[in-house]
Design brief:
Blueprint (H helix, E strand, L loop, with lengths): L15 E8 L4 E9 H7 L5 H6 L5 E2 L7 E2 L4 E6 L2 E6 L5 E7 L8 E2 L2 E2 L3 E2 L2 E5 L2 H20 L13 E7 L5 E7 L1 H10 L3 H18 L13 E4 L5 E5 L4 E6 L10 E5 L4 H21 L1
Antiparallel strand pairs: 1-2, 2-6, 3-4, 5-6, 7-11, 8-9, 10-11, 12-13, 13-17, 14-15, 15-16, 16-17
Helix pairs in contact: 3-6, 5-6
The structure holds zinc ion (ZN).
């Protein structure tokens, strides 16, 4: 096949898919990425050195069948039904330190209310280094697969549900874009009238965000996780931040094509992973619905 395939337009045998992996004991969530073995074979042998240099890091392990990514951060779980399964871990980014909170002078109270900047008077130390490595690894992996499999037909029976393009540069801008297939849009149209569809997506986002802030997460943050799905299947998801959104566009092409994905105001790797979790939740729902 020499034609370039578009997820928005074509039914493409699955290259990769996202899924949520939750450990109920820990009340945390991780993300899984499943890569078809035909894609892994196609990408095999590609040098990641040049691309990883662009990302201002060179320690990218790119050999499939073992842990891959910057600092080997994506964990290989094994092969199942011709798909190589990788765990995308959610590192803890906000940790409680032994230092006294400067905002409330270590009292845990601020003008008579609970101080929002600490945990019971102890300062919070934010460290994005591990989360940066996860996001950068996922971005480089997805962009490589998207580029090299655009003409590839795998032997998978399922179709590719979405093309996820994440952009991450260490110390730079973050972004999520891509394409949703018509199958996903049809699912979103159906779930616009059934509450569990969007409710589960919002819960999945919250679980991932909360996993990163495990020790510091505040209940009031719950209200900032919003997902709305309109009757035309257009999606709008929001997470805590300064206008952090994931949304669909080009709805006017409905009926012929799927939708484009875009995002705004992703400032931290935690927000980045939170929106990837939303897409993983959608993957799980559509697969379960088939
Ligand atoms: Zn405080």
């Amino acid at each position: 096949m020499s034609d370039i395939k578009m997820v928005m337009r074509d039914k493409i045998p699955c290259w990769y898919e996202l899924s949520l992996y939750s450990d109920k004991k820990e009340k945390a969530a991780d993300i899984l990425i499943r890569i078809h073995s035909d894609v892994a074979n196609c990408v095999k042998g590609i040098s990641f050195k040049k691309v990883s240099k662009h990302m201002k890091r060179e320690n990218f392990e790119g050999e499939f069948g073992r842990n891959i990514g910057f600092n080997k951060t994506l964990k290989y779980l094994g092969e199942k039904d011709n798909f190589l399964e990788y765990l995308v871990p959610i590192p803890i980014t906000d940790k409680v330190s032994e230092k006294k909170c400067a905002d409330c002078d270590g009292t845990g109270n601020f003008n008579g209310n609970e101080c929002l900047f600490c945990k019971e008077g102890k300062a919070i130390c934010v460290d994005y280094r591990d989360a940066d490595a996860v996001c950068a690894s996922l971005s480089l992996l997805l962009s490589t697969i998207n580029n090299f499999s655009s003409t590839l037909e795998t032997s998978a029976r399922n179709f590719q549900l979405m093309c996820v393009r994440t952009r991450f540069v260490f110390g730079g801008e973050l972004y999520i874009g891509g394409e949703l297939s018509r199958e996903v849009v049809d699912y979103l149209i159906r779930s616009a009238i059934v509450r569990p569809g969007w409710y589960d997506i919002a819960v999945s986002m919250q679980m991932v965000f909360q996993a990163a802030q495990r020790e510091f997460y505040k209940d009031f943050q719950d209200r900032y996780f919003k997902v709305s799905i309109k009757r035309d299947g257009s999606l709008f998801a929001e997470c805590p931040g300064d206008g952090s959104f994931l949304y669909t566009q080009n709805q006017l092409l409905r009926g012929c094509y799927g939708y484009e994905l875009s995002s705004h105001g992703i400032d931290t790797p935690v927000q980045h992973l939170t929106f990837v979790a939303a897409l993983a939740a959608i993957h799980d729902h559509v697969r379960a619905d088939q």
